[in-house]
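Feature request, filed as a ticket because there's no other form

It would be nice if the structure record came with a short human-readable summary line next to the tokens. Right now we just get the raw output. Example of a typical job, pasted below so the devs can see what we mean:
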Amino acid sequence: MNSRQGDDSREWSWYNYFLAPPYKANLLEVRPACSEYLMSETPRIDLRSDTVTLPTEGMRKAMASAEVGDDVMHEDPTVLRLEEATAQLLGKEAALFTPSGTMANQIGIGLHSRPGDELICEPTAHVYLWEGGGIARLWGVTARTIEPLHGWLQLDDLHGKIRPDDPHYAHTRLVCLENTRNRAGGKVHPITAIAEISGWARAHGLAMHLDGARLMNAVVASGIPAAEWTRYFDTVSICFSKGLGAPIGSALAGTSDAILEAQRLRKVMGGGMRQAGIVAAGALYALENHVERLAEDHENARLLARCVEQTPGLSLESGPVETNLVWISVDPSLGTAREFADRLKSEGILVSALGAQVIRACTHIDVTRADIKRTIEVLGQVTAMVGVGAV
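Raw output as currently delivered:
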């Protein structure tokens, strides 16, 4: 008998040694933070991000039965099906599966720019703020950040922002937009504004890249098909591991020539995967089954937002909620954002503290209406405990 199948399997199995009772106590020696989570009996409602979603039973079955091959050799049939489906969804000639949205975005930037070039984006754009300085580290490109005058980047914000054709300046090459706009409260960038910016960019020889990590949230919230949004861009990234609920993966879409070059950049960045169909199957299942249900996440977020508006000491940082992100300003009378988040955590509610007085709650496939009602109840209790009052 294989020793891994015998009664003494605990001797070799990391899982059994660390996680199966009574062995999970051993985690105290190696992973204090992890052990705190595993040993806790408090139910958790995780609103930190839509990246924390777990595969559904149907998704797990699809992944377990996926046809696989070597994707670097373009022989994984499931990856090929995912890329074809993604390209068709986004109205592009081709698409490339990547391990992460950051990689997809950075490959997009690498396709359109060279060292010494400059791109234009908002100061809170994910490509600028939350991708480890990749614009500069990977490509030697600088970013010209432009603060929108009226809530979202519009054509009026861009007039006069292209650098002169002078050796003193960087070459302005690219405009990067984001939809939905994470740090703007999950807002949908109006398609009329995008169309005008795209026309301006093309008239001046600039490329357009869309960080569409949560593009399908914009599609569901607006009723506008994905391909209608993406027609204004040369390249588009889309994330499968956020609201769509897959465990891993994003994709970059564009022309066939662009994606051919993107394969080379992905390889250079260490993103070439072998039997990737196992995870591609989860992404494909998400596209086929989890798009329309994003409306539930949006409704849950709006319900939570209404509670925030009625809770003394809390307010919506970015105005009305449109999709699945609720950015909340915490009055100093309730403590810092970190302190307030810790109080919620002690009651089983996990949120992200993303500023001195700002927290973010994100609804997703693993958050039910009952979870939101419980979160609302806890918000009232926690604010009451520090003397501000309840809902």
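Something like this underneath would help us a lot:
The first strand starts at residue 45 and ends at 46.
The first helix runs from residue 14 to 19.
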